Amino acid sequence: MSAATIINGTNGTNGQVNGTNGKNGVSQSSQNMCSYEECDKIAQHLLSKTRHRPKIGIICGSGLGGLAESVENKESFSYKEIPQFPVSTVPGHAGRLVFGKLGGKEVVAMQGRFHPYEGYPLSLCTLPVRVMKLMGVETLIVTNAAGGLNESYEVGDVMVIKDHINMPGFSGNNPLIGENEDKFGPRFPAMSSGYDRNLRKMALEIGKELKFDNFMHEGVYVMLGGPCFETIAECKLLRICGADVTGMSTVHEVIMARHCGMRAFGMSLVTNKCVMDYDEDRKANHEEVLETSKRRGEDMQKLVTKMIERIEV
Ligand SMILES: O=P(O)(O)O[C@H]1O[C@H](CO)[C@@H](O)[C@H]1O
Ligand SMILES: Nc1nc2[nH]cnc2c(=O)[nH]1
Q: Which residue intervals are annotated with compositional bias (Low complexity) in the record (predicted)?
């Protein structure tokens, strides 16, 4: 079965939807949500195809898929071959699930993630997180490319995510909307400890050891729906709200991971400085994002690999 077959009549290709409501006014999100049993079927299917038994899951951000490349003894599956999975449509997201060893541990890495602006509901964007959980993953590590709002952040800086602002949530969009799957987690999950304190501390310590501390920070990530980059007024608002960087991903993945009891860690690469001044002619663009990711990608890989070496599984 493909992603398209689980969606009730309103979808385009590969599970993309056009935003209309389905039968009985039930929201699209709940219709697209795979049940526990369906997620388990996908998990068992993948486990039957690989000898690896990962306890650590990774989601690679825009242009940051090199981390998945560095996995040893790789067994890779294109998203197209995985039942019910959407496909990657964004440059810099290869669209592969990679199993293997990194830092001496068994991992599974998404080389490419799903964003809501691609036309996928948040529940479908986060399907792989639940599948990872049912394959035995206990810790989720996510990376992303983000725009710097904090004036002291430079292009190429790395920010350990301390907390997030779920902007789509403010308008009632959340991957958990719909009937709650009690087997995964509670109806009302707490989100005050989204990003694991020990893993954050570990990342900053390793950053120091690698002499990365001159470009590392800890701060707040805000997710917007995209695909537009922010206006100047929006950037000013987000900064006042306490955000240090902004992007179009991560938050829905971490919500899903925390809901089902996984530990979560996230790291943003500041790929561009947000335009905050009406006299500036600079414009945010995806080419600059990918260019910065290329430049700083290896340092992020080193950091994540060292973390995985130290994580007890
Ligand atoms: O968050 P990741 O997937 O790293 O990608 C970021 O980069 C893209 C914009 O250049 C957006 O998709 C934004 O979310
Ligand atoms: N929303 C948003 N996402 C990004 N991803 C990389 N840079 C940016 C940015 O400036 N804004």
A: 8-25
Write down the catalytic residue from 33, 43, 115, 159.
Answer: 115
Per-residue pLDDT averaged across 206-211, rounded? 98
What band does 33 get if pLDDT is binned at 50, 70 and 90? confident
Classify the C-alpha dihedral 137-141-146-150 as positive or negative. positive
For the chain, which domains are there? 3-310 (3.40.50.1580)
Q: Average per-residue pLDDT in the chain?
A: 92
User: What average pLDDT does the segment 51-63 reach?
Assistant: 98
CA of 117 to the centre of ligand 2 (A): 13
Single pTM value for the model: 0.93
Instruction: Give the pLDDT band of residue 18 (cuts 50, 70, 90).
Output: very low
275 close to 282: Cβ distance less than 8 angstroms: yes
Alpha helices in the chain (DSSP H): 28-32, 36-49, 66-69, 122-125, 127-135, 167-170, 197-209, 232-240, 251-259, 286-310
pLDDT tops 70 at residue 31: no
Helix axes 36-49, 127-135, angle to 10 degrees: 60
Structure tokens at 162: 């301390």
Please indicate whether residue 93 is annotated as part of the active site.
yes
Reported ipTM = 0.99
Q: Which residues pair with 64 in a beta bridge?
A: none
Question: Are β-strands 245-247 and 139-148 bridged in parallel, bridged antiparallel, or unpaired?
Answer: antiparallel
pLDDT confidence of residue 39? 98
Reduced 3-state DSSP string for 242-282? CCCEEECCCHHHHHHHHHCCCEEEEEEEEEEECCCCCCCCC
Question: Are 139 and 57 contacting, i.e. CB atoms less than 8 angstroms apart?
Answer: yes
The pLDDT value recorded for residue 15 is 53
Residue 167 is a catalytic residue: no
* Helix H or strand E encompassing 26: none
The pair of structure tokens assigned to 189 is 């999950």
Tell me, in angstroms, the distance from the centre of ligand 1 to residue 107's CA.
23
